[in-house]
Design brief:
CATH superfamily of the domain at 34-99: F1F0 ATP synthase subunit C
Largest sheet: none
Oligomer: single chain
Distance between the termini: 39 Å
Strand content: under 5%
Structural class: mainly alpha
CATH topology of the domain at 34-99: F1FO ATP Synthase
Number of helices: 3
Length: 99
């Protein structure tokens, strides 16, 4: 209950802090693009890191079970890691395009 109270208190403070952003001469429009871009990039990088960790963990487990299949596992591991990393790079391109 204490944690929920803290979350609601933090949200209330953030909602009332909106007039701080109005220092640009009376314009009420706030550009949330940089905040969204930063959150999106952080989320993409974090989740791609988790995906890569799971892929490598599964490949190591597969190698431990069947060491003779090393070449095939390694090929698909490198291909999978490249595709996972490309998702982060696509997000980075979108962030730069929006900013």
């Amino acid at each position: 209950m204490r944690k929920l109270q803290f979350i609601f208190m933090a949200l209330a403070v953030l909602c009332f802090a909106v007039p701080v952003f109005a220092a640009d001469g009376g314009s009420t429009a706030i550009s949330l693009v940089p905040i969204g871009a930063g959150l999106g990039m952080g989320l993409a990088a974090g989740l791609c890191g988790l995906g890569q960790g799971r892929a490598v963990g599964s490949a190591v487990e597969a190698l431990a079970r069947n060491p003779g299949a090393r070449a095939g596992i390694f090929t698909f591991l490198v291909l999978g890691l490249a595709l996972i990393e490309s998702l982060t790079l696509f997000t980075l391109v979108i962030v730069f395009a929006k900013m």
